[in-house]
Amino acid sequence: MYEQYCEIFCRCYPAFGMSAERFESLLINDSCHIITHYEDGAPAGFIITEGAAIRLICVEPKFQHRGIGSKLISEAEAYAVENGIGELLTGGVSSKFLIGADKASWRFFEKNGFESVGGCDEMLIRLKDYTFNEDSFRGHRMAEFGWYEGDAETLREAVAAVDENWVQYFDENSRVYCATVDGKIASFCLVTLDAQNYLTDSHGRVGMPGCVGTVPEMRNNGIGIEMIARVTEYLKNEGMDISFIFFTGVADWYKKLGYEIFMTEIFGKKEL
């Protein structure tokens, strides 16, 4: 059955080109609830929810604009109410898959009573043509760059100064690249090689800089942008095919390095 869901998804989102195995591993778990709409005995659309979050809704292109998607939303709402859930959300930051409604489908959610409560961009750069040139940056004039080797608590304090919600992702085993000024952390980011996400099957080996931040007093010195430029070069040298930015609100900043928007997602909410 999951293979059929994946086939529908890939026809709705051909840019993903995802295998059924990847689809299932990223999207399906024991907490998910799946509602399926059938036409002539075969799945024609489905909605997958997890708690209050709509992880994915897809309708076969040839069956779209017939009210099937709205029917699936209504059935998901009824299921949520039966289980004491008072709202539905388009995705969520804990998802390994889409974390919002893609921009192209947002009008559908609006018509079904959802309101926008924010959004994000997801970005990538193809690394084969990327080259780091130190002369294009100025951060190295005051900062040093390298892998973090200090204690976790000091690192978490710097992370908390940028975003307290990120602290949970940093521990003794985290692979963190940093810029330091006079021995103190100025910028930081998590670095992942061979990330297994929704781009892996169609784009090859995926590297990811994540939780990228510069402490407030060190901003506007060109340090953060040079740090990411160096990390991007590192990912290229490690044989990654793309560098992927998952969930950012500063797309114009990454565009300076050549990153492109792959998808814009909107966080929607509907009270039930």
Overall helicity: 25-40%
> Roughly what fraction of the amino acids lie in strands?
25-35%
Task: Kindly report the name of the CATH homologous superfamily of the largest domain.
Answer: Gcn5-related N-acetyltransferase (GNAT)
The number of distinct β-strands equals 12
Q: Quickly count the domains.
A: 2
Distance between the termini: 30 Å
Low-confidence region ranges: none
Structure commentary:
- The chain is α+β, with helices and mostly antiparallel strands.
- The protein has two domains: 2-113, Aminopeptidase (3-Layer(aba) Sandwich); 124-262, 3-Layer(aba) Sandwich (Aminopeptidase).
- The protein has helices spanning 2-12, 20-27, 68-82, 106-111, 152-162, 200-203, 223-237, 251-255; strands spanning 32-39, 42-50, 53-59, 87-90, 101-102, 115-126, 144-147, 176-181, 184-192, 206-214, 242-248, 260-271.
- Strands 1, 2, 3, 4, 5, 6, 7, 8, 9, 10, 11 and 12 form a twelve-stranded mixed beta sheet that branches.
- Helix 1 (2-12) crosses helix 2.
- The two termini are 30 Å apart.
- The model has no long low-confidence stretch (mean pLDDT 94).
